What does this fold into?
Amino acid sequence: MMVQSTGFFAFLRLGLAAFFAVAFPAAGQPQEEVEKRVNDLLRTMTLEEKIGQLNMVSNGALLRWDDISSGRVGALLNFNNAQDIARAQAAARQSRLKIPVLFGLDILHGFRTQFPIPLGEAAAFNPRLSRLASEWAAREASYIGVQWTFAPMADLSRDSRWGRIVEGFGEDPYLGSVLTAARVEGFSKGGLATATKHFAGYGAPQGGRDYDTTYIPPAEMYDTYLPPFRAAVEAGSVSFMAAFNALNGVPSTANAWLQTDVLRKRWGFDGFVTSDWAGINELIGHGIAEDGAEAARKAILAGVDMDMMGELYIRYLPEEVRSGRVPESVIDEAARRILRSKMRLGLFDRPDADPKHVDSIFPSAEARQAAREVAQETIVLLQNRNKVLPISGSVRSIAVVGPLADAPLDQFGPHGARGHAQDSVSILQGVRAKAEQSGIQIRHAIGCDLVCHSSDQLPAALEAVKSSDLTIAVFGEPADLSGEAASRAHLALNGKQEEILRALAAAGKPIALVIIGGRPLELGTLPDQIPSVLMAWYPGTEGGPALADILFGDVNPSGKLPLSWPRSVGQLPLYYNRLPTGRPTLENNRFTLKYVDEAITPLYPFGWGLSYTQFAYSRPEITKTHLKAGDILEVSVQVTNEGSQKGHEVVQLYTRDPVASRSRPLRELKAFEKIFLEPGQSKRVTFQILVNALGFHQDDGSYWLEKGAIQIFVGGNSLADLSGEIFLEETVTVPLGEQRAISSMKVYRNDL
Ligand code: GLC
It folds into this structure.
């Protein structure tokens, strides 16, 4: 039943209009001027020249320079220095129309200065820091002439067997939306256009196997996997990258529902879509194209404008058009989107890269400070029994042990762009520098190498542990086990790491485990044997100093898990915002939701993270409990630092719709705010949430706000207690056609 609530639509249309006016500014040029210039240029182009704009080629042995100078290349990737970029752009200027090429590169978490990997950044729950990190990455890359990054990755994932979980923001659509928008804004502010990827559903491959197929019902796509991509559109992402995976049987690279219906017709995106690397060729492997010509045809007709490294568009589209199988208007529209983006970025007007610019001037002291600040807030204190941390003044000697203690490149994680080992300050170096300020002796032993197949280094490590007051054990996941094509069927620490850690813990001295890695790992009995455990992710260039700041208590840990941490790989996929079942877990009833050989709960839940201090929450107050569409839900809570150390806390608000026309998640994060409190200080946090954000989609794409109760939970993690409930007084359903008005940045950002 649809109730036309005029207030609802008026409010949303106004919001949207204001929104898109802000979200899509041309780079200093009025929109209509850009369109005129683009159309004037298009009218002068031959079919081959238009198709040339759709062709993206990588630096390397296969690159033919005369393709660039003859206008057969519209974009280049994997150029990472100003000299080569300037040379390639000069070649493009030799073409008949002198159309500049667009230079793209994978810059995910830094260019020369490496910031924490995105999954770690997500643990900071801090859009300001996400913008800062992205802006720094963009400043350094654009200085040497890169104009476009293949980031942010907006793929949510609930399965840490999937190696690329490291590149995303974890399991939650709201956190993912806020941070994806923040990264698009940060990259843009620093001078890089973005290719938000991988559109879409790539983070849910069966078995956690990268590139494998995905089955995600439409309602789940709308409510969970698509929102971060929509946030990217509203934040002004210049382009999107189609995903490798098939979605419900239709490969994303030939999926018109994704690339045209959702992205363009419903969200109003007017940039361009590129394939992923040879993703169009892979349509043959997916079994939906006989040959390259059919693959090219299906991709261009679905809405994929650019062919990355497939060379199928440049080879087959001229004939596909001349044969009438592809209308030339489709080519015109694809070329228009690419030229419009280049025009908006100023490529036709600004000078080309200065070949004298080199990235060896980075990292600057300012960039290092930014990288250290971001890394500090990503570190999650998972447990801290006996208050082993922060390191007390009585500690006079520390053993720093483990294969990742002095691993300057591994602490960058995958996609380290131009990160150099000599720039990186390792955990050992960071701890040693701070310890020496207090005359604390440091002993170092690796325990085993990164592969850790042998424990022959264990005796030396044990000697260091037994001779020291405290052990900092740095173990985890070497960088080459993380990232693309790094799916893992086993999540235990690789090699003999666990055996070595158990032996070190058995020495009976105080010990803290620091995990370096790109995903939650299976820890087995280690949390029982080791009192303090921190997750430091891949902390980047300043990972050592940042971790030392935390370990010595100069900075209070504030990271919160952006995904659920499994006890064992058998629990995956595992996520907090799961649906209820008809048989919720009952302790003494076998025939309810449970395993016979493992607990049903995560080891550490979404939103979890400890502090060296304690935060107390008052009973939250709900300003108005009876609300309708278009209203604002307002919830306030007083938070007090009851401990002796200043620190950040991430105050989180979750909702649940206990009875609806479809099963609704047990909890859904709808807002968070990161606050800083001195010892004894209190702060009143007030959340304002669009009631429109409390609805859900049906499989037909309609959006529903249903009459009835909505429960509210406020606290420091996803286990927060029930704080109260509101009542939606009317049911409003918004058919597919009017969906564009539903969202606004207010829904995605808590720092407006
Ligand atoms: C890769 C990745 C994609 C990356 C692209 C260019 O295969 O899937 O994320 O941006 O190729 O390197």
Summary: The longest helix spans residues 6-23. The CA atoms of residues 69 and 91 lie 5 Å apart.
